[in-house]
Every structure is written in C-alpha cells, then in structure tokens.
Specification:
The protein has about 60 residues and is mostly beta strands. The protein contains no helices and four strands.
Length: about 60
C-alpha cells in the first residue's frame, strides 16, 4: 500500500510530508507538523498546544537550558 502526500500549495514544487514528535509526557504525537520537501520553499504547518501555526521559514529550535 503506497501513501500519497499532498503537493505544497505555496510553491507547487514540493510535497508536504508529515513529521511526528513526542509530547511532554513522552506520548507519541503523530503528524505534529507538515513540511514542504522543496529546499527553497520552507513552508510548514505545526501544532503546538492545540494551536496551528504556519510559516515560510524553517530554522533550528531554541536550545532549552
């Protein structure tokens, strides 16, 4: 069974692929973010604490001390 992911509607050159993460208590969070595969696009959707955010730039996460 092959999985198809949606095309990026911002650049039309990449594909939006899902990323997963772990929550504060270690529970798996499936599809926490969707990221465009086209390197110059950088579009992403993300869920944090129940809020959806989107942007055009992807950068490193801040280091927690």
């Amino acid at each position: 069974m092959e999985t198809e992911f949606p095309n990026c509607l911002k650049c039309n050159n990449g594909t939006l692929v899902p990323l997963s993460d772990y929550g504060r208590d270690g529970a798996s969070i499936m599809y926490k973010a969707w990221v465009c595969t086209h390197p110059q696009c950088g579009f992403h959707l993300r869920i944090d604490n129940g809020e959806v955010s989107m942007g055009d730039e992807i950068g490193p996460a801040p280091i927690k001390k």
